[in-house]
Task: structure prediction
Amino acid sequence: EPEVTQTPSHQVTQMGQEVILRCVPISNHLYFYWYRQILGQKVEFLVSFYNNEISEKSEIFDDQFSVERPDGSNFTLKIRSTKLEDSAMYFCASSRDRDTEAFFGQGTRLTVV
Amino acid sequence: KQEVTQIPAALSVPEGENLVLNCSFTDSAIYNLQWFRQDPGKGLTSLLLIQSSQREQTSGRLNASLDKSSGRSTLYIAASQPGDSATYLCAVRGNQFYFGTGTSLTVIP
Result:
């Protein structure tokens, strides 16, 4: 069964450093998302991406964050100058259409120290 | 703004029981609703997708219903097993997914 793949599974970084979280969505999917989940809290929307551009972003997704689809297969989330409060599990998701099933990756656990 | 609520927050049942998890949402303008399972520290596994035009969807021991007009969905789990222990999340889809806070289910052998 096709799946969304995220790397790395766990990343530890120092406060102020930049991190790039990587995702390989399912190959024929057109809608891509990044979500995060702070430990013990709700899954929160960060950004959606369609047709090679951001279609919607939350108030969390400020200038510190950016997304790219550099080569038609990977989908990356960059966090510049990480803060302690960025520590969370980050999930990538994809779907073929807006009304079809969405698949989430296993997540990248980001720990900022 | 869409708000999604799940009740109960936690549920503990003996093995073999049937159970119902509830999800409510405030804005009925949705494409669909999806139920997920999350094991501790793990990702989100899709269980069932219900389109906004559907009333019900079944997969094995799972049955999900949707009443869009009243903003409610239920996930029915038949003959629960210890392996069903996990957190169950519902997510309604508009331009993004809006998640509930989840129901933590423990099935006691």
User: Anything to note?
Assistant: The first strand of chain B starts at residue 4 and ends at 7. Chain B touches chain A at residues 31-32, 34, 36, 41-46, 49, 51-52, 89, 91, 93, 95-102 (CB under 8 Å). Residues 6 and 101 of chain B are 6 Å apart (CA to CA).
